[in-house]
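Risk register update: the risk of archive-format incompatibility is retired. Evidence:
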Amino acid sequence: MSTVVTLFRQRLRRDRLQMTIWIAGIGLLVGFSVSAVKQSYGDAAGRQNILELAVANPSILMLRGTPEGSGLDQFIFFDIFTFIAVLVGLMSTFLAVRHSRAEEESGRAELLAATPAGRTLPTVVTVVYGAAANLVVGLVVAFAFIAGGLDDAGSFVAGSATAAVGLSFLAVGLFAAQLMRTSRGANGVAAAAVMAAYAVRGIGDALGTPSADHLHTTVAWWSWISPIGWAQQTLAYDKNTLTPLLLSLAFAAVLLVLVFSLQAQRDSGASLLAGRPGRMEARGSLSSSTSLAWRLQWPTVVGWCAGSAFAGILTGTLAHAVAGAADADPNMAKIMSSLIPGGKGSLVQLCISAIFVMVGILAAACATQVIIRMRQEEVAGTAEQVLATPVSRNRWLTGYLVVGTASIILVLLSGAITSSVSALAVGDTSARIGDSFAAAAAQLPAALVYLTALALVFVALPGWTIGLSWTLLGLGTVFGLFGGLVGMPDWLRNLSPFTHSPVPVGTSTDWSGGIWMLCIAVAVGAVAVASMRRRELNSA
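Archived output:
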């Protein structure tokens, strides 16, 4: 028992900053959302108009979920629950991989296995710790809803649904750690599973059957194969049924049985999916440190480009769906404007810009993984082998910055191209192509700020690189993407680079914010490269 307590306390101490930020951030998001929705949609008529519009446009249901009535409590659950579920899912997968595959990569798992803890007990403690973290998140969400004046019973059902989603993806993260040889690969697979669950749930909601009054929707079977869909079917604040959460518990139990079975059979450091054997001789294209950095990073870039392409498809179809929404409900334009600071264009242009903020976040996430990969190379000792050649520290860092910049551009282009193609496919004019590419270009400066700022973190605080990278991106996402929607104060929103991204509106676009961010990115990048010259390698 003392070993279990020691391992549990070690996880608490190691994650004290990250988990505090995750849990507090989710709680604050819920609190801000409740306050903002009450302010904007306090009357039943306004909520009813929005729900009728959502049911009439399946693309909106893909983003939000399924409505279950026009009551204020029901409307708030419809408005924000799927976003909360995605955040909790990502929190849980990162936690699982951090305490499993990452420990094997660093060699700490092998040291633990040589103690009385063995190989199995640390995983058991990780399951207990992850379950406890999700229980806390569920309680925080429930009390945040109650503090906002929502029904107590429905709030606890919503909190239980949140915790169930997290538990499901905790098991997914641990299973991904058995599949992949690296923590980066496991994180990629697990995060893709979270987004796939969100997308599958979205398809099921979009294909659902609306009620006669257009205030309720019966989901299609697609939603019943997604953990987020199961949680949504608790129908919090309406029927308040916990039965669908049994699917989450069963799903997590099955995956955990597989996890422990696989772990008992494989060697430490091995994985179910073995890596490909390398070539006997390297290609000529790997003759430089920059090309080597690209070779290490391109599979990750492809994954983020695929996510951006999906968002681009959604952009084209959703922009077409909301083209006439301003006549149906003037509040729709107000919502889009709240998502985009200073947005004064047409409803379609605002819609495209709003969704391309998400594409910009994907591009920044791709850049974040470039910097994290550089840190992982340093910790693993492979960076030292590269620097033992005539490659200087400055050149090595510059190579990763070049790869990061190229990755950002590719992710943004993927979204712009698919957005244009999907817009033409649904009959929109060629003007939408220009809007899509302009919206993509507007997100480039913010993503570059993240790239260079995290490079400076890597130079100045190498041990903080991985944790601080995801923390800064998460905070920037919440402040920039949800800040206006949930009524955050301007000073808090302005901390996010995404808040200052230009809003393309024809020839009247104000690009000054983007130009300033480009200048900042160049200056910070130059400082990082110059500082790298005297920095010693740090594998701790």
